[in-house]
Design brief:
145 residues, alpha+beta, Alpha-Beta Plaits, 2 domains, 34% helix, elongated
């Protein structure tokens, strides 16, 4: 299997995954003020919420797939981040934020949040394209909403 994602009927999944989505929706709609309040109303533990909140989404959610956070390890050389940004632009993403840690051991950790609403390829394809760039050591999707 080449993709990390599956479309699965929720009838075969544990009920708590649906409750994670409910808790997140309660927070987004301000029906719950805190995560503690949201998970109590949804009937799940905080641990369950934190474990699955960035990985479980409703297919009919209007915000699914609009934003993604990627963490990368880049070789610490001039122009590497620019090549990443150029490729992201070619893929029609919009960079929202960039955070780069101080390079250590000739490697730089970079966290980039993207608006992917105009992208015509999958998130898997985006990460594959970035991994193929020279001096990109690793790319990992941390979150999507």
């Amino acid at each position: 299997m080449t993709s990390d994602y599956l479309f699965v009927n929720k009838k075969i999944l544990p009920e708590y995954l649906d409750k994670v989505i409910l808790a997140r929706d309660l927070l987004a709609s301000h029906e719950a003020d805190t995560i503690t309040d949201a998970v109590a109303k949804a009937g799940i533990s905080r641990n369950t919420y934190y474990k699955y909140k960035d990985y479980v989404f409703s297919a009919d959610s209007p915000t699914v797939g609009r934003h993604v956070v990627l963490s990368m390890i880049l070789k610490d050389e001039a122009g590497v981040l620019n090549s990443v940004l150029t490729r992201l632009n070619e893929l029609h993403t919009s960079v929202l934020t960039i955070s780069q840690a101080l390079p250590i051991g000739h490697k730089a950790n970079v966290l980039i949040s993207l608006d992917i609403s105009k992208v015509t390829v999958s998130v898997d394809e985006i990460t594959k394209e970035l991994k193929e760039l020279n001096h990109v050591r690793s790319v990992h999707m941390d979150a999507m909403d």
